[in-house]
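Below is a filled-in request sheet from our internal design queue. Each sheet records the structural input a requester submitted and the sequence that came back. We keep these sheets so that new team members can see what a complete request looks like end to end.

REQUESTER: design group, bay 2
PRIORITY: normal
MODE: inverse folding
CHAIN LENGTH: 267
BACKBONE (tokenized):
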């Protein structure tokens, strides 16, 4: 691994987004000049992070120990969820959920402070920041990207506490020990389980479809917003240049008028 290159890429994701593209292209040009075409292509493929993702990256890089704690809290929470849904006491689940909540809040506040320090409004962003950290706690791949401080966009918060794979069906206490018909009851139970699995699969497919559609729509809106911001920045620069030109022209006109007045007085 080229640690120097990794460090420079990391710097890209933690600098203000407005300078990302220019810095990325500069790094790509340097790599091309060195003949490192694969590295160049990798760098040029990097996407500018959104403002929110940038703030999260800065917070993650500054508080790496908290991100590691978040990952551990997520693993513990998933384990306790499986225990609780498999019939064990829920006390450990509540404690694990509270532990994760506390870490999420600390990271959320750190990212919000990055926004405020950068002169950006953080009041309406707290839920989105918290949702990203929650998502990273239940998705190992997302957690690793967060740990590397290279998020490009915020993450969709999880609908539940995390993966529930590996759970077993728990019978109700009052049903345990009841005699069952050896011929009919096992088939009935298996059929019910099959119907339940099919219903869950359909619900998962529908939820995934809605999530993809929402993500696509959000991405389009983010890109539209970024284009609008770029256009506003360009218009602001043009306005300032025009105002400066107007002031210069006004000064030149005043000087010319004064010179003309002096020339008329000499006659």
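RETURNED SEQUENCE:
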């Amino acid at each position: 691994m080229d640690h120097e290159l990794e460090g420079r890429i990391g710097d890209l994701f933690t600098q203000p987004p407005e300078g990302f593209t220019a810095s990325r292209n500069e790094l790509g040009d340097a790599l091309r000049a060195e003949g490192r075409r694969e590295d160049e292509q990798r760098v040029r493929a990097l996407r500018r992070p959104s403002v929110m993702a940038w703030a999260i990256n800065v917070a993650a890089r500054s508080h790496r120990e908290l991100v590691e704690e978040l990952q551990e809290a997520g693993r513990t929470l998933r384990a306790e969820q499986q225990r609780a849904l498999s019939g064990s006491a829920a006390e450990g689940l509540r404690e694990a959920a509270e532990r994760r909540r506390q870490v999420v809040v600390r990271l959320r506040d750190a990212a919000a402070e990055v926004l405020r320090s950068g002169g950006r409004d953080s009041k309406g962003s707290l839920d989105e920041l918290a949702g990203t950290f929650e998502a990273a706690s239940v998705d190992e791949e997302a957690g690793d990207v967060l740990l590397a401080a290279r998020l490009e966009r915020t993450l969709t918060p999880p609908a539940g506490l995390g993966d529930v794979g590996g759970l077993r069906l728990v019978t109700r206490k009052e049903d345990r020990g009841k005699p069952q018909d050896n011929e009919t009851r096992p088939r009935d139970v298996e059929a019910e389980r099959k119907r339940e699995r099919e219903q869950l699969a359909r619900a998962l497919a529908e939820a995934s479809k809605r999530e993809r559609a929402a993500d696509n729509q959000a991405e389009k809106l983010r890109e539209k917003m970024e284009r609008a911001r770029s256009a506003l920045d360009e218009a602001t620069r043009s306005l300032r240049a025009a105002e400066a030109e107007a002031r210069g022209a006004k000064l030149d006109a005043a000087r010319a008028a004064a010179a003309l007045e002096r020339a008329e007085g000499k006659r």
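SHEET NOTES:
- Residues 197-267 form one domain.
- The chain has three domains: 3-44, 49-162, 197-267.
FILED BY: M.R.
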